[in-house]
Structures are given as structure tokens and as C-alpha cells.
Fold:
Amino acid sequence: MSARSSASTRGQGLGNVVAALDVDVTTFGSSRAGLGGCPYAPGATGNIVTEDLVIMLEAMGLKTGIDIDKLIAARPIILSGLPGEALYGHVQDAGLPEGFHHA
Structure:
């Protein structure tokens, strides 16, 4: 997860997804580049970064139907539309895992 973790998830959002998969949850919310938060709790974040979620699920062999290459390509567009806003996630820094293939 991103460095922008909240007290509500304690940085464990992706781990929570794995636990939820174990009990057959199949729908998850995430946020492009970790943007957003809670308007009623200033400073609260806790959004799972969509790019990181998709990489994790695809690496687990689950088909998301989301094109990770397009997600990555959209980041500069988001940044240009939100100058000065911090974008989060690990995919943009680490890149796709070597040999990564979409499920």
C-alpha cells in the first residue's frame, strides 16, 4: 500500500483484500493513485491504490479485466490535471514485475 496509510486500515488495505478473498468477497473499492479520503475525517486516507491492487490480484492469478498499462499511462494525465497533488502507489516507482503477464 502507499505511504499514505490511515489509522482505519493501518496500511493493511491490500492484506485486507487478501483476507476478504478468503471468505469469497469479490468486489473491492480502490482509488486511482490513492487520491481521495474522507471529507468527514480530515487527514484520513486509507484508499487502496488501484494500480497496486490490480498488480497484486493479477500476480495472484486473478483476472481483473483492468489494463494495467493504461492505468500507468493515465498517471501523467492525472498529475497534469491536479498540479501539486501527491500521487501514491508503488507501481510507478517499481514498475511491473519482471515477466509479469496479465491473467
About this structure: Residues 1-7 have pLDDT under 50 and may be disordered. Residues 79 and 85 are 7 Å apart (CA to CA). Residues 13-93 form one domain.
